[in-house]
Specification:
The chain has two domains: 192 residues, FAD/NAD(P)-binding domain (3-Layer(bba) Sandwich); 142 residues, D-Amino Acid Oxidase, subunit A, domain 2 (D-Amino Acid Oxidase, Chain A, domain 2, 2-Layer Sandwich), CATH 3.30.9. Helices cover 35% and strands 29% of the residues. It contains eleven helices and 19 strands. The strands form three sheets. Strands 5, 6, 12, 13, 14, 15, 16, 17 and 19 form a nine-stranded mixed sheet that branches. The longest helix has 28 residues. It is elongated. 47% of the residues are buried.
Amino acid sequence: MNTLNQAAPAHEGMTHGDAPSYDIAICGAGPAGMALAALLARRGTPAQRIALIDAKTLEQASNDPRSIALSWGSRQILEEIGAWPAAATAIHQIHVSRRGQFGRSLIDREEHKLPALGYVLRYGDLVTALGAVCQRAGIATLRPARVEAIAENADAVELTIAGAAAITAAIVVQAEGGLFSDQESKAQHRDYQQTAIIAQVRTSRPIAHRAYERFTEQGPLALLPQGEEYSLVWCARPETAARLQALDDAAFLAELGAAFGERLGTFTRSSPRLAFPLGLNADPRSTARTVAIGNAAQTLHPVAGQGLNLGLRDVAVLARLLAQGANPTMLVQFTELRRQDRNTTVRLTDTMARIFANDSPAQALLGLSLAAIDMVGPARGMLAELMMYGRR
């Protein structure tokens, strides 16, 4: 794999003083950043004209044990660049229910004539596959490296990199974190006063390929099939989450069973648990020559599992446009084309999260809504389409 301070061919063409220069610099080599780099190369942008920068080594990212859920539409994007991991568990059905209330909805792949509604896989497996694709393509890469500052002018953007030479690019894409902190923010921030508990759990009566989204009084509880286990994401108020974290495994599994019910029998095993505070950060800012995608543009509540899927839809549109030309006109088009899908997905996840962030009367109506969705085929189809493809 090329590195930014070794890839001499990448200096050809546009220059800006003595700094190595590129068409497109991507800050953040997570799934969204690497997928964008690989898709740009596939769409015709010379690999040596793309710079990929990240603070972690690929080995560090590949060891990340977290599980992620990807939609059918996301698999199509990753397959196009040859980065679909082999170790993915297909979701054939999604069971949505409300604890203590009548009503549920069951979304089935058969209704949509698809091999799967989505997939569950390890984050580390995905970045490993994407890293291999970028390496084979010869994309210029600098990691570990931290971007300290950016300076935008009329014809280029200069990036100051800690401990390395500065580089310039016609377009800078921020795919992780908040690099553009010095720009005027239009961010929408919200603290949901919820914490997500994440673990791998086992049950006595698993149902293969069926995922569960269970709404409780304190937040959603998701179980995603992954091999012989389930990936658990249990959202609760901070004080409840702290109490659950303090329990031993037996007591924790008993409380999980009480919250989820007996559809899968009893919970028999849990991996060590992790806890993360939850909030909304919707900040899809851009300038003439900079743009944010993925987690840099929107960090969502995990309800409905739309975060990375929304980021990969950003990738697909931006790659198509930048392959036509790395210039400000394409960033304007990108913002317009992505506005509806982003707004719809942010509103959906934000509304659902806020309902369960407090004792809202709307919680009591959810069970009836789920029953209505299950009885009306078109409504169930619209929900499935949004989860698989986003707003198109």
